[in-house]
Design goal:
1041 residues, seven-stranded antiparallel beta sheet, five-stranded antiparallel beta sheet, 16 strands, 9% strand
Length: 1041
Amino acid sequence: MLESNKDSAKLDAMKRIVGMIAKGKNASELFPAVVKNVASKNIEIKKLVYVYLVRYAEEQQDLALLSISTFQRALKDPNQLIRASALRVLSSIRVPIIVPIMMLAIKEASADLSPYVRKNAAHAIQKLYSLDPEQKEMLIEVIEKLLKDKSTLVAGSVVMAFEEVCPDRIDLIHKNYRKLCNLLVDVEEWGQVVIIHMLTRYARTQFVSPWKEDDGLEDNEKNFYESDDEQKEKTDQRKKPYTMDPDHRLLIRNTKPLLQSRNAAVVMAVAQLYWHISPKSEVGIISKSLVRLLRSNREVQYIVLQNIATMSIQRKGMFEPYLKSFYVRSTDPTMIKTLKLEILTNLANEANISTLLREFQTYVKSQDKQFAAATIQTIGRCATNISEVTDTCLNGLVCLLSNRDEIVVAESVVVIKKLLQMQPAQHGEIIKHMAKLLDSITVPVARASILWLIGENCERVPKIAPDVLRKMAKSFTSEDDLVKLQILNLGAKLYLTNSRQTKLLTQYILNLGKYDQNYDIRDRTRFIRQLIVPNEKSGALSKYAKKIFLAQKPAPLLESPFKDRDHFQLGTLSHTLNTKANGYLELSNWPEVAPDPSVRNVEIIELAKEWTPAGKTKKDNAAKKFYSESEEEEDSSDSSSDSESESESASGEQDEEGGSSDDSSEDSSSEHRSDSESASEVGDKRTAKRNSKSNGKSDSEDGEKENEKSKTSDSFSADSGSEEESSSGSESESESEFESRKVAKEKEKNKTKQDRNPLTKDVSLLDLDDFNPVSTPVAFPTPALSPSLIADLEGLNLSTSSSVISVNTPVFVPVKTHVLLHRMSGRGLAAHYFFPRQPCIFGDKMVSIQITLNNTTDRKIENIHIGGKKLPMGMQMHVFNPIESLEPEGSITVSVGIDFCDSTQTASFQLCTKDDCFNVNIQPPVGELLLPVTMSEKDFKKEQGMLTGMNETSTVIIAAPQNFTPSVILQKVVNVANVGVVPSGQDNIHRFAAKTVHSGSLMLVTVELKEGSTAQLIINTERTVIGSVLLRELKPVLSQG
């Protein structure tokens, strides 16, 4: 089939071969026949050939080398999957002679427009380094370049390469630290694990310890010798509160949402990060997430329980509320049962020990004998750790001595022996009882323990001990070696304390031991004979024989086997094995003084000089149009890298990531970017940042926004409008202009030549908006209102078509309200909010929210206002003006605007009155982060064709046929999401379109009805995270009746 001239036959053959590989069968014999098809023009065949070659290229190196020219040509292929696959095959041929070719291919791929190819370049770095470590310096240069990449697809892979090649080069991370923190939520799951572990090591080298509890004692000792003034000064210094580095806080805050990840490895990585670098008061939040993982499969449970066992030794309080989660189930495997026992022992205290002992009584009856023995050891540890229950545990263990199961009895004897060492004088009766058990117990360890106990307490049981020795002498030759050694010891101790009765018996035992087959027993016999039976050859030690044999023995310390594991990083293989594994990177100690935090600042001063000041006239900007398109493209790329380097806001970082990844597939759009817009807007942005930094107070933002609002109203009257527009009509059109490539192109044309013909229906709006970039006020920083360069770049990436995509009025506005503050929690003040689905008047990137406040008391509530805000990085909020008073039973509706940065993260803030402040939060449904847009069916298909592959998610819906009528589908979709209806020429296909409020990325929804009662739901968008969330919300709604 592989030799066939028909592509269909070859494709079928390749599918079968790849299927064989997937099942683990050997297909290496087919290598010569497969490698011939590497130059096939059929893309599907070529993909499967590359999959095969990646698997077998290392085994069949000679044959693979014959096709190396084909791989090199494929590196230039227009299809990104072919380019990536060729690089994977090339890096899989592990022959030193092609190292230069691999190095060149990696360098070219690291600059590829496709983030998928760049990701594979990062993977190839590790393979090349393992093949030729001498290439390290050149590979570090590539890693440094890829670390600056803004794509979430690349971030995890390049950090993995960094950890493999140069984990000690922390300096490469400095400039990218904030970017990695902000991109972390959007990186794929295994990339998140790698990045979190790397950032944990980074934090331990760059920040001071947040654990300051243990410093007090040392200071007090020093202060004793100092004068009162010096002591007072030092005390003040010691009491000075610890202030956390903002970058340290950024890492802790941005990893917190990942505790809800579906991937257990991600949750475990975040848990170890919190354990190793967060303040001790904040570590507690990881306990609930770790307990949640106990519902996973047994392998995951094993790793999680090992880490909980280590944590619970130091921080019992973290897991005490979840005590019942560690109760043993009958279906648990033995390894899980013993780990749960370990944790229950660590969590035991005076308050819960009675409950735990009742639980342990049940475990002792288990059919799993290994688990029952472990339970008895656990009871012994509890008796040691908690003195109040020592006697209770001891009595319970004595009762177990009458158990029918020999293993339970033997383990009880061993544990009782350890407990009796702590207070031997009080338990003579127990020793007598155990001596009687020698006739029935056959387990060597238990017999040896009883003999040792009798020997140690031979003076307390003078009548029983000689008789026990007599019985043991009879069975000496048939005993286990461990028991024989204890018989010898017992004979020696009785010879020294009661030689009249036991002298001959001891000599008989010594004679038996002298000719034993085991050399340890023979040696012990000779040693004891010389020590206790004095003769002319005896040394000076024989005088001290009694002191040697009957010395006071220290009580054994029953400790957790996990006590010494805390020096390994949690969640690592080394921690699991309790030994240092190959490749393990130790966590460094906290530095005494924090290194310079400015190394993480991204410098933008030099690039700022290249930009045209915001006050330049249109003539100057128009003059730039005489440059070639390639230079314009370079300028726009410089502007994107410049603005992307500013890592103060998370929204900026997220938008930049989207912009850069979009450029990989739609690079032609940068040619249409207006240099004048770039210059003026970036100038405004920097001026705003400088002003905001000089003010240095986040609390003054609201006041500045109010000033800006008044200024913009004046500028509107002077026909020099700002970016904020009051009328809903002009606002909706201006938003579409920022997001549509065609409109952006028309804006350029209007700046250079007023009589150029734009689209007729948008002439007046384009002309009106033409003045905006020039006259944007510079003196008032308004990051929430003025559009950034990144937003424009993302808007330009949405489409290369000549269509107009404009914001439309919502098709449907749901009346559902959400509780913001319950009247009981708010002491009579109740608050509800809902989403009116209208463009926000406070900023074109904000979601409009209406809050209804009700006074349910019989008194007046005064000064209702928004207090402190705890917003995620990049999120911004425009608050309502304070309400002086709200009459009893009165109600008032106010509007706020929140820039959610195209995410469903919660906006937390305080709703305050004159007397109280209440913590409230708003979490938007994903459907409310959209604005409906209108477009033709042709434009929809064109945009959809550009948003395929990784930008497309789909699912199959099953429902009754009556639920698939056009009216029902329309009602269900618009009820969930604020989307516009796109006309469709086919009855079985329903199309909807919207754009995200913050970045303006298109969101295309298609419901295609299939035969029977099934339909396919397809969502195309650059914002894949929002797209997948929307898909999950739409699927159950469309499925139900």
